[in-house]
User: What shape does this take?
Amino acid sequence: MFRQLNLAYVVILAMLSGVVGVAIAAQGAQDRFTLKSPNGIVFSEFRGYDGWQAVAPSATDDGIKAILANPVMINAYRSGSGAGKPFPDGSMIAKIEWAKTPNADSPYDVTVPGALKSVSFIEKDSRRFKDTDGWGYAQFKYDAAAKTFTPTGQGAGFGKTECHTCHTGVKAADFIFTHYAPR
Ligand code: HEC
Assistant: This one.
């Protein structure tokens, strides 16, 4: 009886340590949503961005990108925002960038996403981001080997100096470069 009980304890302990081990391993993975851009924008403000609708894809010499927007902004695009009409507060847009790689299985030349490089975000809140025409900027660079994100920039004013200055080039489109692609 005593021996049997002991054995039961051993089995339960072994199971528990397994559970604890899994929990510790899970903690080791980075929680991207707790990261904060130096201007105070938290990654979690954009939770769900990976499921947003596409505005358009785009490609540069060294990257391939998907530009996605939340439902508020997609609806605004469809009713003329970005083409003379400003986007409303609550608009959010994400740019996901990957390295380019060929699709090895394709019978013709196809370029597809390789390693994830970064995610960039812009959100509109005209009270919160007064000195950047209502738009707040955040970027998180991805280290594919370490599987971790790091916020871009330094200082509370980084969005203005490192992002908005260039986006001001498309002031007429309410500071957004990407147009909604027909589908
Ligand atoms: C030198 C100019 C320049 C700077 C600086 C810049 N951007 Fe952009 N941004 C662009 C251009 C051009 C596009 C369209 C790019 C594309 O499709 O590849 C773009 C697109 C975007 C988009 C998709 C929405 C849109 O406007 O098309 C986001 C989100 C974005 N940028 C965030 C940022 C953030 C965050 C920063 C600062 C860390 C930043 N950008 C700095 C030029 C710039």
In short: The CA atoms of residues 81 and 154 lie 31 Å apart.
